[in-house]
Design goal:
mainly beta, three-stranded antiparallel beta sheet, globular, four-stranded antiparallel beta sheet
Length: 144
């Protein structure tokens, strides 16, 4: 998950667009992501680039009006932060206040510095998919 709001911030999602402290997080539509998992059969997923202040983040958006595409306004409490997954419609994150909710600072153990291992359209334990799924160009890639 990605930390997107800090203590005192107000965050709300309207039609899949994030607003932090009443500022819209701009997103630009990119070419669709093609999911080539053999169980999915070349499913197209909308892909966007979100511009988080000084960061650019690629996100996926499977459907309009998903279960968490419209939220109430959350105010992040002291000593907590708000996280969201980049695959927005397939992510249990802080938008789900009864199951995940706000994350206590004490749960933050470090900052990601590099990508250790990367798979596309495969889970880690689905090792039989690895020959086609390993994204060699991402292994040990530095995260800025």
């Amino acid at each position: 998950k990605r930390v997107i709001a800090l203590p005192g911030d107000k965050i709300k999602i309207i039609n899949g667009v994030i607003f932090i402290n009443n500022n819209e997080i701009y997103r630009k539509r990119l070419d669709d992501f093609i999911d080539t998992d053999f169980n999915v059969k070349n499913k197209r997923v909308r892909k966007y680039k979100e511009f988080f202040f000084n960061l650019e983040v690629d996100i996926l958006d499977i459907t309009d009006n998903g279960i968490a595409d419209n939220t109430k306004e959350f105010v992040i409490p002291e000593d907590h932060f708000f996280v969201m997954g980049d695959n927005r419609d397939n992510s249990q994150d802080s938008r789900f206040i009864n199951s995940v909710g706000f994350i206590p600072f004490e749960n933050l153990v470090g900052k990601a510095r590099f990508i250790f291992f990367s798979l596309e359209n495969s889970r880690f334990l689905e090792f039989w998919k690895w020959p086609k799924a390993i994204r060699y160009n991402r292994i040990f890639k530095k995260i800025l």
